[in-house]
Amino acid sequence: MMNLDRRDDRMQEWMRQLPDPWPFPEPERFAAIDGRRVATPPQWRAGNGAWGCYRSHLLILEKCLLEHIDSYVVFEDDAGFGDDFCERLQEFIAELPADWGMAYLGGQHLYAGKNPPHKVSEHVYRPYNVNRTHAFMVRGREAMKTLYRHLTWNDWHTKHHIDHHLGRLIQRRYQALVQGKNIQKESIAVYTPDRWLVGQLPTKSNICGRKWSQTRFFNDAKNADHSDAPFFAVLGPHRAGTSCVAMVMHHLGVHMGNQLGGYEATGGGEAVGLAQLCEKVMRFPATDPNVSDDQLTQMLKSWIVSRKSEANRDKTVSGAKYPHLCRFVNHLHAGLGDSLRIISVERDIEASIRSLQNRSEKHRGQWFAANDEECEVLQRSLRDHRDNFISDHPDVPVFRIEFAELVTYPEEVIGNLVEFLGITPTQDEIQSAIEHVNPDLRKFG
């Protein structure tokens, strides 16, 4: 157990909260290197605390190599244990593949939206990149030597801590076995449990100085991509009322993106990042994407997982609106699976076509303008892709909004929408959503 001499308080606190029964030998305290008291190399840019952490982990590894110790478990003194630690640890160890060289008991999965942990068995996953070093196990002399070579290699990225540098090592095996890439560099087999066994205690960090109010457990392998959190896709062609619905959801507290834009003066409810992504892969008024299905699925999933994480932080749900999503709904489903929810905004297609043609006529020469034929082909394509998907996937939850009903009976429609979203907005948020609906929004039928 790594502990600074000047932090005896953390040593005592750590010992008091050890699980009973304790599945390992009696913990041995290792006097950690105090970054404040040593000189860091001129090329080190990550701070004194991070230097001390790196050197402490390296010294433990060196000690084991020199003393012919072929396995060890290391805890930092802010490691806090989850419920049923011993039982869940035994489940994890029993399922670890025979080749394991390193196993994290606690940490944080990075880049999980784009590279989700790969399931090996019920309780074991192969991670892409793990952040944090407060609890992990190392086994086998060859794995330990590989780890040592990597930690003493001089190709560290600027401002990287030890956990960032270890993350680069972990990626290699994932890239080779999961992504099928030709990786020539050394790697070791790294695994994590389906749910973290160890979190970080609510103590002040020796490295960043922050303090939290409760033990923190980060995203689990089982749910690194927030697959249990719903995502609400607002689907409808251009000029179908989707902007109005998206802004209603925004007023209700749904996380629709970090920066909203769009054509409507009252707010289009379109996340700028999503709009840029959509236009990059299918420039208006195109009807088919210019990238592969797998690539588009991954791009959408990566963007959405980040929004889910932000929504989870804010204790709400996430959603998004952009007309292209009608065309991409199969890709959404491929990336999100059972977490996809659809809000289908429905308006007479002829009225939507005329409205888009009218907008184009007003803005000739702009990128979002098209000729009459292009407008009609695009609108029908978007509608058909949405409707065909809904018809072919009866298990995907769908909430249908007739645009005419929304502008005529906003209180009733919004009340039903709130129930579908599964949220509890305040009365002020509900009133704000109702007031956003303009009853005059009925041009072209």
TrEMBL record:
Pfam families xrefs: Glyco_transf_25, Sulfotransfer_3
Q: Which InterPro entries match?
A: Glyco_trans_25, P-loop_NTPase
Positions of the Glycosyl transferase family domain: 48-132
Q: Which domain of life is it from?
A: Bacteria
Residues crossing the lipid bilayer are none
User: What is this protein's name?
Assistant: Glycosyl transferase family 25 domain-containing protein
Q: Organism source for this protein?
A: Rhodopirellula baltica (strain DSM 10527 / NCIMB 13988 / SH1)
